[in-house]
Structures are given as structure tokens and as C-alpha cells.
Design a protein that fits this description.
Elements (H helix, E strand, L loop, with lengths): L2 E11 L2 H7 L1 H21 L3 E6 L2 E6 L2 H19 L10 E13 L2 E3 L1 H12 L5 E4 H7 L7 E7 L8 E6 L22 E4 L3 E2 L7 H16 L5 E2 L2 H4 L9 H8 L3 E10 L2 E10 L5 E10 L3 H16 L7 H4 L8 H16 L3 H17 L4 H16 L6 H18 L4 H13 L3 H14 L4 H13 L3 H14 L6 H14 L3 H14 L3 H13 L3 H13 L5 H8 L5 H14 L6
Parallel strand pairs: 4-6, 9-11, 9-12, 10-12
Antiparallel strand pairs: 1-3, 1-4, 2-3, 4-5, 6-8, 7-8, 12-13, 13-14
Helix pairs in contact: 1-2, 2-3, 6-9, 6-11, 11-12, 11-13, 12-13, 13-14, 13-15, 14-15, 15-16, 15-17, 16-17, 17-18, 17-19, 18-19, 19-20, 19-21, 20-21, 21-22, 21-24
């Protein structure tokens, strides 16, 4: 009889029979989604599920630390997903964890080690995590989550009481952004990757240095136990000589990654270094000189060295790191990076037109290049959003096709699910948009744009209060984002629908200070209309009319995908009161 020591996680749904009685099909669909999410998180943390029946499952881990991390990740992810459901339909899991001796029976595990975990799961309250004393002893001082002792408990069919502890997995709420307030350090390692400096002497090579930086940010962002500042905020420091200590304070991070790139013919030289922001101490530095074809290996090595220098116990599945591989066709990769650089500039219609053409070239060179399809979809959506499209129906159709193709090719790429969310906005399918945004965040919890998209989608399905949390998270993940005006605009719209017109106006004004776009003007007008500030509204109406997209009816269909006609009518009511002559 083979025996071994293992960490066992047991989980089941609290009140499952009640959920099935309310809505059997809905409960089964939610259970399938949640079980798939749990399975992915178990695998990501080095575990395996060896038993599942109905609404329960049992998993094995070799590491106590990774098992508790997995349990916390499961509860946090399911809490975020439950916010999209009516309270009576929310599905909460109880989780028990134990470290003990088990008997190996093929792929199955048996014995008291498994039974104790199952009994701890029964002790746990809905959405709680209970762990045994044996497991608690192995994680003391290794994790940041508070653990509360519940005392010794007599568990069913156990010969002696078991010490029980409860893991407090809840995150500190994200404080609403207030100008000038210092940003508190997150409760996990926080990192900003500054734009790598182009040392080639040729400004045309900026796209290459930027592309390398973006890929490193993406790779680090996939580690859910890191807090990684979004690309857009990191790139606010491009070309600026700023002290790393100041950057650490500005972005609220503990670590800074910086480096340089020099490309000459087929050779490339990359330097990278990791700095502790508060002290300026270099924790790691390395130089790479390789063939350009090795660029993906360099990205991977830099990422791994940064992770190992900060917290070597953190794991991630090889399939997630493989996202960096993108395309083996380096010409297609260059076209993609050039198009991405133009998309991120977001200065004019010409930028988006050129970005779209570069991505089409990349796809022509490598039709299976998922990230090129993804960026083509992003640029098409942006061209519509900014009112630059001369045919929204045409661009919407291409957007939908490219987003769908991207997801088929790269189903584990969070950006591909993000563009599928955008495509669902365009198709007026907000519930589907919510699911795609959730999937993107499941894959990359540091994805600021996905959090923004989730908040946006929740507005359209009528979950206005629940929209605020992901919108505030987007602001914290990217505090100096050029798209901050869009984050404020969505926060304003959520407060508008909650009837908080003064708070909505405050955020609408902040959005307009950052960028005077048509939609920002419209949200401000709706707030002024509801507050009976007609004189102010009359001064703004001419500017809104002058900035209106050419094909306004189609534009409004594109960007007002409310599920409930009453919510749409409420939005329209504010614009009518403000005196806007053309309303959706």
C-alpha cells in the first residue's frame, strides 16, 4: 500500500439544492463555469483535481503555501463573478484544507488526510476557508493572509479534536481615487516596468524597445500574486529622467524594472535590472547579447529572474508563459509591434488607420498570429469609439470576426477575451461582454483595461453599484493612464444611474479636464440636466454638437447597449433636460 504526505483541498457549494430549486438550468450553468475556473486555478498553483461529484470536488497539492494561495484565489475569483448575479442566485463554495498522510489508489487518494479536509469543508461557512492546525504550521510567516484560530473542533468520525483556523481571504477595498493622495502599497509584491530605452540611435526602432517592454509587463502581470502597474501608466515615463524613488511613490509600487535595447542587424543587446524603489538598491541586473530570433527567450529569462529575485515560490503554468511566443515569423512580429505603437499613440484617425494596416500585414504574413488579430480588433473598436469610422457597420463586422478569430487561436490570452468583450459591446450583448471581461481578469488579475471593461459592462446590465469596484481597481492598476478620462467617464455613468448626480458630475468634470471627447461631453450634459443646471448645459451643448460623430444614430446604437429600456430612458432623460438636440 503506497502512502504519501499531501495537502488536500475539499470544496462544495453551500445551499446547492436551494439554487437548483430556484433555477435548475441557471445553477447548472453557473456551476460548470465556476468548476472550470476552480480547475484552472488549481492547475496554476501546481495542484490536480482527483475527485469530483455533483457540486463538490477534491484536489491535491504538494505545497502548503500554493494550496492556500489557490484557495484564496478561488474565493476571490468567485466573489468577483458572483457580483454579476442576483443575490439569491450567487453560488458560494466552502473550502477545507488539510495536510496529512494519504493512501494512493491509482489516481485517487484515500484515508484520514482526505477525510479531515472534507470535514473542515463542512465546518466552513459559505465562502470561507478553514484549514487544519497541521497545515497552519506549514504556512506561518510565509503568506500575508490573516489567519484566525477557531479552536479545537470535534469533527465527524474523527477520533480526536482537530485544531481549526479560518483564512481571511478578503482584499482591502480599493479606495476611490482622490487627486494628490499618496497611493498605499498593495498587500503583495508591486512592480512597475519602465519603457526600455532604445539605444540603437534610430528612432524607428522605438517600436522594438516598446514591444519588448510590453511583453515583459504582460508576462509579469500573469502572476496573480504580483501587483503589476499597467503598460499605459508605465509608459507615461518614457523619455523622462525621473528618480526611481519618485516613480515608486507616484505609482505606489515597491519594485522598478528598467533596461535598454540595442539592435544592430540580426543581433540584439538587452540589459535589464530590478531596483527596490524606496532605497534605490539594485536587486538583480543582467545583460543579454543574442540573435534577434532569440528575443522571446530573452523576455522569458528577464521575467523569470525578476520573479526569482522577489518571490521564488510563486508558480505559473508553462502554458501561460507561452503567451509571449506570439509568432515564429519575426517579420509578422515586427509589423504587429509597429501597429501596436501607432494604436497606443491614439492621436488621430490616421494613427488608427495605419495601425489597422500594420496588423493586416502581420496577419498576411502569419494568419495564425492571434495577437495580430486581437490588436486589429482593438484598433477597429477604437476607430469607432473616437468617431473616426466612416462606416461603423463595416468596422463592427470586421471587429467581430477578428475578435472571434483571436479567441480561437489564443484562448488563454487575456487580451483576446478583452477584445471579444469589446466586440460584444458593439453587438449590444452586454451579458456576453461581462463574461468575456471576467475571463480576461481570470487569466490576468492585473489587467486594468479588463477591469474597466467589466465595470462598463455591468453598467449596461443594470448592476451600477457593482460596476464601481472594478472601475476603481482599473484606476489603481494604472494611475497615470492616458485613458484615465475613460475610467472617470464610466465611474460618472455608474453614479448617474445610481442617482448620485453630484458625484457623477464630479467625475464627469475630471474626465473632461483630461480629454474633451464627445462622450465625455455627453455624460457631463446628462448630469447637468438632472441637476437643473441649465445655463451651464447651454454653454456646453454647441461643443457637443460640433464634436458629434458623422453617423450619430449608428454611433449611439454602438455605445448604448442597455439591457433595461428604463435605464436607457433614464440616460436619455438627462440629455433632454440639458437641451441636447440629438439624443439616442
Amino acid at each position: 500500500m503506497e502512502r504519501k504526505l499531501a495537502v488536500i483541498l475539499a470544496a462544495d457549494v453551500a445551499g446547492y439544492s436551494r439554487l437548483v430549486a430556484i433555477d435548475e438550468e441557471g445553477a447548472l450553468a453557473t456551476l460548470a463555469t465556476y468548476c472550470a475556473t476552480i480547475s484552472s486555478l488549481v492547475t496554476e498553483h501546481g495542484g490536480r483535481i482527483f475527485g469530483a461529484a455533483g457540486d463538490s470536488l477534491v484536489a491535491e497539492f504538494q505545497s502548503a503555501v500554493q494550496a492556500v494561495r489557490a484557495a484564496v484565489a478561488i474565493q476571490r475569483t468567485l466573489q468577483r463573478r458572483n457580483a454579476d448575479l442576483a443575490p439569491e442566485r450567487r453560488m458560494e463554495f466552502r473550502i477545507g484544507l488539510n495536510l496529512g498522510d494519504v493512501v494512493v489508489d491509482g489516481s485517487n487518494l484515500l484515508g484520514d488526510g482526505v477525510n479531515v479536509a472534507a470535514r473542515l469543508q463542512q465546518v466552513a461557512k459559505p465562502a470561507d476557508i478553514c484549514i487544519s492546525g497541521a497545515l497552519h504550521d506549514q504556512i506561518v510567516g510565509k503568506l500575508e493572509f490573516p489567519v484566525h484560530r477557531l479552536g479545537d473542533r470535534a469533527l465527524k468520525n474523527m477520533p480526536r479534536p482537530v485544531p481549526v483556523h479560518r483564512v481571511d481571504w478578503h482584499e482591502d477595498p480599493v479606495r476611490p481615487d482622490l487627486p494628490g493622495m499618496p497611493l498605499a502599497l498593495p498587500d503583495k509584491p508591486s512592480i512597475a516596468v519602465l519603457p526600455f530605452v532604445n539605444m540603437s540611435g534610430d528612432p524607428e526602432q522605438d517600436f522594438f524597445a516598446d514591444g519588448l517592454t510590453e511583453d515583459i509587463i504582460t508576462a509579469l502581470s500573469l502572476y496573480r500574486w504580483f501587483f503589476v502597474i499597467a503598460r499605459n501608466s508605465s509608459f507615461a515615463y518614457k523619455g523622462r529622467a525621473v528618480d526611481v524613488k519618485q516613480i515608486g511613490r507616484d505609482l505606489g509600487v515597491r519594485y522598478i524594472v528598467e533596461g535598454s535595447v540595442r539592435r544592430s542587424g540580426s543581433r540584439v543587446r538587452v540589459t535589464g535590472q530590478l531596483i527596490e524603489a524606496e532605497t534605490g538598491i539594485h536587486l538583480w541586473a543582467q545583460r543579454y547579447e543574442r540573435e534577434f530570433a532569440d528575443i522571446f527567450a530573452i523576455q522569458d529569462e528577464i521575467t523569470q529572474h525578476v520573479v526569482a529575485a522577489i518571490e521564488p515560490e510563486i508558480l505559473i503554468g508553462e502554458n501561460r508563459r507561452a503567451l509571449l511566443r506570439g509568432s515564429d515569423n519575426l517579420d509578422a512580429y515586427e509589423c504587429h509591434m509597429r501597429g501596436t505603437l501607432l494604436h497606443n499613440a491614439q492621436d488621430s484617425a490616421a494613427h488608427f488607420d495605419d495601425a489597422i494596416e500594420w496588423q493586416r500585414r502581420a496577419i498576411a504574413l502569419d494568419p495564425e498570429f492571434g495577437r495580430a488579430h486581437m490588436m486589429l480588433a482593438r484598433s477597429l473598436f477604437a476607430r469607432c469609439y473616437f468617431g473616426f469610422s466612416d462606416d461603423i457597420d463595416r468596422d463592427s463586422a470586421e471587429l467581430a470576426a477578428e475578435a472571434a478569430r483571436a479567441v480561437v487561436i489564443e484562448d488563454h490570452d487575456p487580451y483576446c477575451h478583452y477584445v471579444m468583450c469589446l466586440a460584444n459591446f458593439a453587438a449590444r450583448r452586454p451579458h456576453a461582454a461581462v463574461q468575456e471581461a471576467q475571463q480576461a481578469i481570470d487569466l490576468n488579475p492585473n489587467f486594468a483595461l479588463a477591469h474597466m471593461a467589466l465595470g462598463w459592462a455591468r453598467i449596461y446590465i443594470g448592476r451600477f453599484a457593482e460596476a464601481l469596484d472594478p472601475l476603481h481597481k482599473a484606476l489603481r492598476l494604472s494611475p497615470h493612464d492616458p485613458l484615465t478620462y475613460l475610467f472617470f467617464n464610466r465611474i460618472a455613468l455608474a453614479h448617474y444611474h445610481l442617482g448620485n448626480y453630484e458625484e457623477a458630475l464630479r467625475h464627469a468634470e475630471r474626465a473632461l479636464l483630461l480629454r474633451r471627447t464627445y462622450f465625455n461631453l455627453v455624460i457631463l450634459l446628462a448630469c447637468l440636466g438632472q441637476l437643473d443646471r441649465n445655463e451651464e448645459a447651454r454653454r456646453i451643448v454647441p461643443e457637443a454638437v460640433a464634436n458629434a460623430p458623422v453617423d450619430l444614430p449608428r454611433y449611439w446604437r454602438f455605445f448604448t447597449g442597455y439591457v433595461d429600456p428604463a435605464d436607457h430612458a433614464h440616460f436619455k432623460d438627462g440629455l433632454v433636460k440639458a437641451g441636447l438636440p440629438i439624443v439616442p
